[in-house]
Amino acid sequence: MPVDFSGTWNLVCSDNFEGYMLALGIDFATRKIAKRLKPQKVIEQEGDSFSIQTTSAFRSYFVQFKIGEAFEEDNKGLDHRKCKTVVTWDNDKLVCVQTGDKKNRGWTHWIEGDQLYLELCCEEQVCTQIYKRA
Ligand code: YOG
């Protein structure tokens, strides 16, 4: 049985989100608001089809994809840069590569115990977040 990420997840801690936002070129005022947010993720996983809705009081972001199928991602409401994005499995980790203007951009999700982990990368910056089931 493959790992199932489906569910509603609330952010409980975040490390170096500031560094990640700086690497993306997010302005000071937006970073100040964004770093206080406690986003919620609703993940739906059906076979190799995923949707991830990230909701916060300030901005929200929705993405859907199939494993191994590249798509154009607009990052609307985030940094607005367009990427060619593909998500694949690395054992039980969900690995996203976002190819575009920023080097080494992407994210990885995995589950450890009852916690959902998210590692966000851009250039030299790595942000690690932990979510718990709502
Ligand atoms: O999730 O890529 O689960 O999409 C990263 C924000 C903050 C807006 C959030 C809104 C990067 C202002 C998406 C936060 C900073 C700052 C809640 C993380 C950009 C703008 C939306 C992400 C993946 C994996 C799925």
Assign the structural class, choosing from mainly alpha, mainly beta, alpha/beta, alpha+beta, or little secondary structure.
Answer: mainly beta
What is the mean predicted local confidence, pLDDT? 97
Q: Based on the structure, what is the oligomeric state of the protein chains? A: single chain
The helical percent reads: 10-25%
**Widest sheet, order of strands:** 4-3-2-1-10-9-8-7-6-5
Beta fraction of the residues? over 45%
The topology string of helices and strands comes to: EHHEEEEEEEEE
| Number of E strands | 10
User: What kind of sheet is the major sheet?
Assistant: 10 strands, antiparallel
Which kinds of small molecule does this entry bind, naming each only once? Answer: 1,3-dihydroxypropan-2-yl (9Z)-octadec-9-enoate
Give the overall shape, derived from the CA principal axes. globular
| Annotation field: number of helices | 2
Between the first and last Cα atoms, what is the distance in angstroms? Answer: 23 Å
Radius of gyration: 14 Å
Unreliable sequence segments: none
Task: Show the helix and strand layout.
Blueprint: E1 7-15, H1 17-23, H2 28-34, E2 40-46, E3 49-55, E4 61-66, E5 71-73, E6 83-90, E7 93-99, E8 106-112, E9 115-122, E10 125-133
Antiparallel strand pairs: 1-2, 1-10, 2-3, 3-4, 5-6, 6-7, 7-8, 8-9, 9-10
Bound molecules: 1,3-dihydroxypropan-2-yl (9Z)-octadec-9-enoate (YOG).
